């Protein structure tokens, strides 16, 4: 019998990609309200790319349906509804992805960020306590704050900046507290700067390609020397798969990224190499974005056998080819 996995926030960018891959070996159940950075989000309706994003979000739902992955449309802040869903599925594993997954949005709207990120996490922790349900919690590279060395490891001090990183770090602490008090087992994942098909989150790679497709110039925040550990979605999914049901991942934290940061101006150069007429300009940097860089993935390589496959050039080639295939 296959193990049952619930993905909370499973219609999101990471969630639906993860669900499609995990379905090969597990019984997968998606829970999502579709209200945050998804079809029901009001701000989506103000976006200039509204039609494109609605289309991509519907593509996610179609893919889940095509792969016989059931979606329960539930707001995970609702403890009673969530409890009855868990009781009906009796999962072996739950993956918590639900959040306002964007640092700038989090700083603009702390209340709803705390609500969707922490209330949903607290509900899950409380529902699974005392049962043998393993929790995989999605944290972030933002827990480190400004990177103080070339490569940060899971043992380095966390000093987050702003609402998003602080909540992610609080989430980690809460997950660990439930392990201390109730012996609930967990794996904490710290991803960074993901990109790939059907993302509507407005991260830099997506914004650059969509601008270039519309023949608009690219705008870099800062001087372009900020570096991020850009990670293609398939690499992250591969890393998560390796951590599931792996005794070496129990009660552990893993950085799961490409493991080699690239400067934003390198990303811009890559995009303009596909769209040669597009120019690049610079604007003021957001001071609340920490200065990041490379996350060490040595632990994931050693303990899980993780081996990312997509350097930025290869990942962006995939991503741009996919966008071009949409014939926008
Ligand atoms: N994408 C990245 O680059 C990145 C990097 C680091 C960490 N993360 C973390 O990974 C997780 C997933 O990120 P993503 O990029 O897929 O985000 P996303 O915004 O695409 O997906 C989040 C999903 O959670 C759902 N959700 C939010 N609140 C909910 C609630 N109350 N009830 C039910 N569903 C709810 C939303 O509807 C959405 O579909 C987040 O926790 C995020 O912080 C993402």
Radius of gyration: 19 Å
With strands numbered from the N-terminus, the spatial order across the biggest sheet is: 3-2-1-4-5-7-12
Number of helices: 12
Largest sheet: 7 strands, parallel
Question: In the CATH hierarchy, what is the architecture at level 2?
Answer: 3-Layer(aba) Sandwich
Structural class: alpha/beta
Distance between the termini: 43 Å
Residue ranges: pLDDT <50 for 5 or more in a row? none
* CATH level 1 name: Alpha Beta
Instruction: Could you tell me the CATH topology label.
Output: Rossmann fold
Please trace the helix and strand order, writing H or E for each element: EHEHHEHEHHEEHEEHEEEHEEHEEHH
Task: Indicate the mean pLDDT.
Answer: 96
Strand tally is 15
The fraction of residues in strands falls at 15-25%
Task: Describe how the helices and strands are arranged.
Blueprint: E1 4-8, H1 13-22, E2 27-32, H2 42-46, H3 50-66, E3 71-73, H4 79-89, E4 93-96, H5 103-108, H6 110-128, E5 134-138, E6 151-152, H7 162-182, E7 186-190, E8 194-195, H8 204-213, E9 218-221, E10 227-228, E11 231-232, H9 233-243, E12 252-255, E13 262-263, H10 264-274, E14 280-283, E15 294-295, H11 298-304, H12 312-325
Parallel strand pairs: 1-2, 1-4, 2-3, 4-5, 5-7, 6-15, 7-12, 8-11, 9-14
Antiparallel strand pairs: 10-13
Helix pairs in contact: 1-3, 1-9, 4-6, 6-7, 8-10, 8-12, 10-12
Give structural notes:
- The structure is a single chain.
- With 328 residues, the chain is α/β, with parallel strands linked by helices.
- It has one domain: Rossmann fold, CATH 3.40.50.
- The chain contains 12 helices and 15 strands.
- Helix 8 (204-213) runs parallel beside helix 10 (264-274).
- The chain is globular.
- Nicotinamide-adenine-dinucleotide is lined by residues 9, 11-15, 32-38, 75-77, 97-99, 101, 116, 120, 138, 140, 191-194, 201.
């Amino acid at each position: 019998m296959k193990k049952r996995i619930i993905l909370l926030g499973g219609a999101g960018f990471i969630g639906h990609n993860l669900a499609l891959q995990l379905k090969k070996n597990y019984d997968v159940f998606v829970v999502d309200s579709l209200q945050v950075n998804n079809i029901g989000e009001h701000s989506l309706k103000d976006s200039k790319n509204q039609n494109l994003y609605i289309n991509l979000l519907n593509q996610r739902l179609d893919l889940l349906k095509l792969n016989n992955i059931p979606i329960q449309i539930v707001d995970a802040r609702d403890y009673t509804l969530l409890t009855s869903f868990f009781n009906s599925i009796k999962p072996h594993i739950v993956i918590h992805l639900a959040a306002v997954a964007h640092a700038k949005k989090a700083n603009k709207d702390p209340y709803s960020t705390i609500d969707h990120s922490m209330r949903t996490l607290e509900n899950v922790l409380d529902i699974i306590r005392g049962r043998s349900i393993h929790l995989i919690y999605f944290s972030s590279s933002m827990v480190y704050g400004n990177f103080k060395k070339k490569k940060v490891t899971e043992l380095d001090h966390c000093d987050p900046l702003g609402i998003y990183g602080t909540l992610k770090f609080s989430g980690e602490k809460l997950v660990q507290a439930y392990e201390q008090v109730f012996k609930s087992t967990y794996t904490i994942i710290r991803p960074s700067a993901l990109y790939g098909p059907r993302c509507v989150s407005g991260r830099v790679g997506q914004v650059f390609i969509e601008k270039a497709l519309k023949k608009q110039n690219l705008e870099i925040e800062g001087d372009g020397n900020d570096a991020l550990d850009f990670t293609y979605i398939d690499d992250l999914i591969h890393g998560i798969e390796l951590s599931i049901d792996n005794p070496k991942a129990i009660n552990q934290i893993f950085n799961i990224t490409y493991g080699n940061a690239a400067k934003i101006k390198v990303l811009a150069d890559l995009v303009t190499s596909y769209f040669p007429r597009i120019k690049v300009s610079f604007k003021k940097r957001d001071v609340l974005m920490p200065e990041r860089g490379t996350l060490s993935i040595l632990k994931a390589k050693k303990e899980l056998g993780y081996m990312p496959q997509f350097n930025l050039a290869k990942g962006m080639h995939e991503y741009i080819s996919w966008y071009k295939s949409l014939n926008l």
